[in-house]
Structure formats: C-alpha cells, structure tokens
Specification:
Layout (H helix, E strand, L loop, with lengths): L2 H16 L1 H14 L14 H15 L4 H5 L1 E4 L2 E4 L9 H13 L7 E5 L5 H9 L4 E6 L2 H13 L5 E4 L14 E6 L4 E2 L8 H4 L8 E2 L6 H13 E10 L5 H10 L3 E7 L5 E7 L4
Helix pairs in contact: 1-2, 1-3, 5-6
Amino acid sequence: MTIENAHLNFLESLSVEFGKGEATQMARIVFEDVFSITNFLRKETLTAAQLAKLDAIQIRLLTHEPVQYVVGMTYFYGLKFKVNPAVLIPRPETEELVEWILADHAPQKNLRFLDIGTGSGCIPITLKAKAPNYHVAALDVSREALAVAKENARLNTVEVHFQELDILKKENWDQLPSYEIIVSNPPYIPTEEKQLMFANVLDHEPEIALFVSDEDPLIFYRTIVEFAREHLVPGGWLYFETNEYNATEVEAICFRAGFFDIEKRKDLQGKDRMVKARQGLG
C-alpha cells in the first residue's frame, strides 16, 4: 500500500470516531513522529512492518488512548518530551505559565528554582533550556514520573536536580534549601468531579497527578504556600497553575499567608488559570 493510500485509509477510519478535524491532527502526528513522513501524497509503498505498526496504532487510538501516549512523545514550548501513562500530558496552559515566568525573570540571572510535582519535567526542563543560568530543581512523589522526567532532561541536554519527595509531609521540608522561584501545577480536581472528565483523560492519565480529596481540594496550594513562606528568599516569587474555578481561592490563600504583589492571570481561552505572589521582603 502506498503512503498516500495508507494515510487516506487511516484518516477515514479515525474520522468516523473523532471527526475530520481531530482525525487529521492525529494522522499528522502519527505519520510525522512515528514514520518521519511529512508528505502524505507520496507514492512509495509502506513495508509490511510499517503497515502492521500503523494498524496497531489505529486500534489504540480508536480506544481513545491519547495520541501522545500512543506515539510516546509530545512537544512543549518547542521542545520534545517523552510521555507515558506515568505522567500527565503537558498542556498549552502550562506553556503560558512558563512564558509568564520567563517574561518576569531575566534568563541571565542566577536564580534558584524549584518545581513541585514535576511530572514529565516539562516546566523545569524548559526553563533550564531557555535560561541556562537558572539553577533548577524539581520534586515528585512518583518514582515512575521522575524516571520519565530524568529521561527528558537527557533528551533536551539540560541539567535539572530531581528528587523523590512528598511535599505534603512537612518532615521532608528540612531536606530542601531556599529558592528565588517556586512553581507548581499541583493536583486540584476533587474526586467527585471524576464523572465530568473526558474518558481519554480518566482512563489513561495518572490519577495521582489529577485528583485530590473532596474534603480538602486545595490541600496542595495551602501546603505549598506554607512551604514557600519558609523556603522562598525575601522577595522571592511563587507561581501556580490553577483551574478556572479555584484561582480566586488560591489568591486568598496567598494573601492570608502574607504574600503581596498577588496577580491572577487568564489563559488564551480567557479563563483564570495562573496565580503569582511575592514573598515578603523581610
């Protein structure tokens, strides 16, 4: 079968389930990232092995497994990242958070930076790649996620200090130094909202990175703010990714903890998705 016919058949099969727009995007990702094919009208014949691989990919996609997991990678802020079900797939909103940080802090500065709940490592790796003078560290409670993050640091040839640590256990805090910037995109979806999630997210992405208890859905924000009070240098900055429904509450947590210069920012969809706050000057 030629590349042109294989691409057409693949696209038609996916279009029935996902619609032509989403199917076209999936087909482009698969053909470009798996088979290094960018011209879908080529008349060359695919090998039997390539066709078998394409069929296997099609089956996985039709079960609504995210295409990023199927191909094993994604792009974030122009950089390539490996992903698997141990880590969340990086979102465009997180790119906007990284862009905010880079706009606020000159890349030539020697800033100490900590990412809490790093997942794939997309935030610290991108910051280190774009601002090589930053001294970047990252934490996660998941050993499997840290393995992915370390591989991504090697893939992007940057040095990030990764550490397995549960930030909710305050007895661990003494292991950590002070920082000029702390950032986190923590779990924030109450368990009761599971039924509102898309199946491709709920069935495939790691629950530990998504959900918190219904009784205390802001536990990570409150804990990280308390940690930041002890581990940010005077005048240091705290950045959060939030969801559109809790950004105002996150602002209030920062205010009650004595932070100032608190700012809430909307994403490109006009939703409140980011908060930053500054530590007291001492």
